[in-house]
Specification:
heterodimer, A: alpha+beta, Immunoglobulin-like, 4-stranded antiparallel sheet, 8 strands, 52% helix, rod-shaped, B: mainly alpha, Arc Repressor Mutant, subunit A, 0% strand
Amino acid sequence: MNAQEYIASGKLELFVYGTLSEEENLEITKAIQEMPEVKLEVEKIEASLKILSEGVSPGVSERIWNIILGKIGKNTETKVVSMEKRTNWAAISGWAAAIVFLGGIFWMMKQNNDLNSTIVENNLEKTRLEEQIVSTESNLEEANELLTILRDKDIKSVNLPGNQAVSPNAYAKVFYNETTRTVHLDARGLPEPPEGMVYQVWSLTLDPLTPTSIGLLDTFITDTNKVFVLDNIPESEAFGITLEPAGGSASPTMNQLYTLGII
Amino acid sequence: MQPDILIAQLQKRDEKAFSEIYKMYSESTLGIIYNIVLDRDLAEEVLQDVFIKVWDKADTYSSNKGRFFTWILNIARNAAIDKTRSKSFKNSRKNLDANNFVHILEDNGNLDQKTNSIGLQKFVKALEPLCIKIIDLLYFKGYTQVEASEILEIPLGTIKTRNRNCLNTLRQSMQD
């Protein structure tokens, strides 16, 4: 159909009425797009129908627009509010999840730190216990060694009782091995020497009375078991211990003789 | 002319465009509604519903489907017909058959507000009785051609051209 045929068909009026079938509607829409005369005719029909309809109107009250505006305002508001609510829920749950997550991370970090410091503490404790074991073992070894020495058949045990005039309660014991020419001296029974003074151990031959220095107990205060090993012992008939100035003396100071014992 | 720019703005929910659209189409829309419900208060109630729907459903309108005028017209007719089925309408029922747009035009106290309506009243009254019935059924009431041909007892094939001739008479008298 050409433009004039469309115009004459009566379809354009029904198109504006909105009573054409879907198919015819598409046909006219296409014709309007392609033919300006058809479009113009449709616009004229519409304009006259608009005027006719306005003539039939009892007149729109002023208040109607405000009512409509209020309702769509309310609608948009509710929509906005509901949207905000929705957004808020998402945000709230998101933040809540994030906070819980962060809290979880911090808690786990703290746990991790605690565990790490516990491990460090435990390691220190372990080291300390290991050291204790080592030192106990070495103590035991020393003690066993000492025991072995004391049980040796060649050992002569010599009591060195305290000198009544100088230190009546003092005593010492000497375990003398003539073969190896060593002495183990148990000096536990001696009092702590005054400052600047040191115990000196002497080997004695009685006829003639000849003292020979066999050692200084200069570690007396720090030594825990007070057992001292002295080597290169000359042939001896007695042992004595005197208190001497630090560094020791060439010959014993007899008025500071603490203990003396004869084999 | 169709206010395409305003329609596009309306579809983006621009209240100012909506206000312009309302100014352009509210009066004609109320005319359509009033022609069906025949009660001013009810018609204005329906008018509110129609324009709220226009606002809410604006994005569903497409120029490919027809004229914007026609889109609103369809909403208005459907809303008005729905109203006639409602309880409130039945309680205040008027005799629809005794009324059409010509009777309304004759009674219309609103006419003095619009200068072109004074002439309109005269032109409409000059229409043939059959033309008035055809335009009333097809345009104002939204009847199909088949329904109109049955009610008016005229052949289906002549409905379209009859309607066109009737409307042309009116248009020509309006232009003069």
